[in-house]
Design goal:
70% helix, mainly alpha, two-stranded antiparallel sheet
Length: 227
């Protein structure tokens, strides 16, 4: 069961889910200690901790301080595909929340960003476009783009709200990156949003970000309808 040390928490995340689906760890059972999982999978304990934290937020695992980590009892009578449903439901709700918050952050960034901040947003969009053209992983650039917009809004409360759900945002993008054609669409939206911010056009920045996230929401709802 040993995995390549080059792989990140994403592999641990997938392996834990697979073990649950296959009944290696049944509903209500306690998982081995994180140190043991780390050794068995051949990855750092930080990768295991990250994967467990995300699965806990998705209600697939239940983390009890001082006692350990358990497969959530709510899944005891559920078919295997219920895990996929829970994951989609979490991502659907997350995207709904982002749709409320991020268009306004983009509008605020168009109003308040310094010239340097606006340029950094454009450079992140361009870097993501280059990665996509080379068919390379662009998760880092995608995350950076949205983080820079949140910072450029100069609203500390809204920025920290997004920062606190960073783990789920990463997982949301892991899923959306798999959708056919979504990476090119996202890249185009990012570039147009960045231009609107540079041109100090909050209405355009808000509208484009709203369209970008509505596209994602549509895809998540498709997955829910087919579950």
């Amino acid at each position: 069961m040993k995995l390549s040390k080059k792989l990140t928490y994403e592999t641990v995340y997938d392996q834990i889910k697979q073990n649950i689906k296959e009944g290696v760890w049944k509903q209500g059972e306690q998982l081995p200690p994180l140190e043991q999982l780390s050794a068995e999978l051949g990855v750092g304990i930080s990768s295991v901790r990250e994967a467990v934290r995300i699965l806990g937020k998705q209600k697939i695992l239940r983390i009890e301080q001082g006692r350990g980590t358990y497969v959530d009892n709510e899944l005891s009578d559920a078919p295997a595909n219920r895990l996929d449903f829970l994951e989609r439901a979490t991502m659907l709700q997350l995207t709904e929340a982002r749709l409320i918050v991020e268009p306004e952050l983009a509008a605020l960034a168009a109003e308040k960003a310094s010239a340097e901040e606006a340029q950094a947003i454009l450079e992140a969009a361009e870097a993501m476009k280059r990665k996509i053209e080379k068919k390379r992983d662009f998760l880092k650039e995608d995350m950076l783009f949205h983080e820079l917009i949140a910072k450029a809004s100069h609203n500390e409360i809204m920025y920290h709200m997004l920062d606190r759900i960073g783990d789920l945002l990463i997982d949301s993008r892991r899923q959306s990156m798999k959708w056919e054609g979504m990476d090119e669409k996202a890249s185009s939206y990012h570039f147009l949003i960045a231009k609107a911010i540079i041109e100090r056009n909050p209405t355009q920045a808000r509208t484009l970000m709203k369209c970008h996230l509505e596209d994602m929401l549509t895809e998540f709802r498709k997955g829910e309808d087919h579950s």
